Amino acid sequence: IAVWTAGSQNPSSMASVITLPAYGTSPRERSPARVAFARVFNLRSIAVVFYFCFVLLLGRFVIGLSYEPVDIWAFNLVRYLRQTMISATLLLLAIACVESFVAARQLGARASLTLGIAVSVLAAAVALPIRVWVAGSPMSSMAKEPFYFLQIWTLWSAVGCISYWLFHTINSEESSRTQLADAECRRESLQA
Questions:
Q1: For 24-150, where are the E strands, in sequence order?
Q2: 63: DSSP letter
């Protein structure tokens, strides 16, 4: 990162600054793929995912509060929250990548839903070994308890598919509203 101070920067040193190109008609306009990615994968979405995971686990752990000490209860809650956030963040990243790809390629509704569901199922499967590795368990534990991991994969696949459908539906409705507003503006400008 270059720091600009009066008289200390010359144009040749600015060449060392790495920037990502903005695709569009003007230097400030961003590509539709970047806009689609940023619409899904941003701090607000990550916060929503965090609170979703927290509420999901809090219901399970509130029962344990009556028979476990608070410090062990809190440690277990944070540990399981970390594991759940791995799956949720990977799903959010996968959905953002699919939305970016769909915006760049301008795929139809059916193709984009199929791709989004397939990538969500794949992201849920990729999250499993990462969760096992972060927990410090051996990878052989997946073979010892296949039904437990199948349940986790099924749950996060369903969450990912529903989430992609939700993002896709919101994006389609927003696009339709924008097109309708543009058509209304064109109609009013023709009448004037």
A1: none
A2: T
